[in-house]
Design goal:
The structure holds two protein chains of two kinds.
Chain A: H1 5-16, H2 22-34, H3 36-61, H4 65-77, H5 82-93, H6 96-119, E1 131-138, E2 143-150, E3 155-162
Antiparallel strand pairs in A: 1-2, 2-3
Helix pairs in contact in A: 1-2, 1-3, 2-3
Chain B: H1 5-13, H2 17-39, H3 42-58, H4 69-87, H5 92-109, H6 113-131, H7 135-147, H8 151-158, H9 162-180
Helix pairs in contact in B: 1-2, 2-3, 2-4, 2-7, 3-4, 4-8, 5-6, 6-9, 7-9, 8-9
The chains are: A alpha+beta, B mainly alpha.
Chain lengths: ~180, ~180
């Protein structure tokens, strides 16, 4: 069946570009030879592309190779090693405007983290069992008191021990003495 | 004896910049034309073209020779040009200035004043019409018009099928014809 003008016009581009198979190309050629409208369309398409090509060629003809190549060679010469690029990246990240925000932000985060115990006592237990040993008080009769709280089993151990004469605070020896439970 | 392109590429893969200069001399103008067709601005086109050749040299070790060198370098060029065009919002004033320069130069090269006037008007409208296309459509029509590349080659460069290229070309041509009207 013969194709109508609309169908042929749709195939004109691929035909000019040489992208149709032999049968289709022959059919389009035959139609164009006998159809003024499609022939005109073909000429318009050809003028469109030749005008575009001519326009870009005019512009490109001004570009001298020496100037072009100087730019390329410069880029090749300026190529930086990976560690230089890493330092550049760090400089960008740690630039003064960013640091101006980062330092106060870090201070706020640190103060917040250190103050958590005040607002949420025992919050650290949420991250697993923690053993806390502390001397709660020292009485006036030479006895010390130490406490150990164990989170998992909810056990509290209390030590009472006497002050040692010649106590050496730097000693790594375990405290010996009368320990009572 | 003239060194073949294959030998030059082999030298480039060993870091020979002088050999690469020969390759650049052969292709720079064609690459520049395609880029200019997409980005329009001459300075931008120069910058993208230089970046294209720099990146190609940097990655030439990865070029296996399974495709033509120009297909490979066009792929880099077109991707960079489309990327720039998508990022950059160019003002119509800048475009107008670039167009006028092209038109004046085209005029100076002709001899028939009526023909020159027609070409000038056509060039003006053509560039304006092209600028209204998407970067993908621009790239396709420029590669076809300037280089006469096959749909298969354009598809390889753009990373899409021949059918998509045919469809994009049809759309781009139709749009340009509509915009140019009787000037064509």
């Amino acid at each position: 069946m013969m194709k109508d003008c609309a169908e042929i016009k749709r195939l004109l581009g691929p035909w000019i570009d040489g992208e149709l198979d032999a049968d289709q190309a022959a059919e389009v050629q035959l139609h164009v030879q006998g159809c003024a409208s499609c022939l005109d369309e073909k000429s318009r398409l050809e003028r469109l592309e030749s005008s575009l090509k001519s326009l870009l060629e005019t512009k490109a003809s001004e570009v001298a190779f020496d100037a072009f190549w100087a730019g390329v060679r410069q880029r090749i010469a300026d190529e930086k090693s990976w560690h230089t690029r890493a330092v550049d990246w760090l400089r960008g990240v740690l630039s003064p405007p960013r640091l101006a925000w980062a330092v106060p932000a870090m201070v706020v985060i640190l103060v917040g983290a250190l103050s958590l115990d005040q607002f949420f006592p025992g919050w650290r237990w949420a991250f697993g069992p923690t053993n806390v040993a502390s001397v709660e008080s020292i009485d006036g009769h030479g006895f010390n008191v130490a406490l150990l709280r164990e989170a998992k089993t909810k056990t509290t151990v209390i030590w009472l021990f006497e002050n040692q004469e010649n106590d050496d605070e730097t000693s790594v020896e375990p405290v010996s003495g009368n320990v009572a439970f | 004896m003239e060194t073949t392109e294959c030998e030059l590429i082999s030298k480039c893969q060993k870091g020979d910049v002088a050999a690469y200069e020969d390759i650049a001399a052969k292709y720079y103008r064609r690459v520049f034309m395609v880029i200019l067709g997409v980005v329009h601005d001459r300075d931008d086109a120069m910058d993208v073209a230089q970046e294209t050749f720099y990146r190609a040299f940097k990655n030439i070790k990865h070029f296996k020779g399974s495709s033509n060198f120009y297909t490979w370098i066009y792929r880099i060029a077109v991707n960079l040009a489309i990327d720039l065009q998508r990022r950059k919002k160019r003002s119509s004033v800048d475009l107008k200035e670039d167009m006028d320069e092209v038109i004046v130069e085209t005029e100076a090269s002709g001899s028939d004043p009526f023909r020159e006037l027609h070409d000038r008007r056509l060039g003006e409208k053509l560039l304006r019409a092209i600028d209204e296309l998407t970067p993908d459509h621009k790239a396709v029509i420029v590669m076809r018009a300037v280089e006469g590349l096959s749909y298969k080659e354009i598809g390889r460069i753009m990373g899409c099928s021949e059918g998509t290229i045919m469809s994009r070309l049809h759309y781009a041509r139709k749009k340009l014809q509509e915009k140019l009207g009787t000037d064509l």
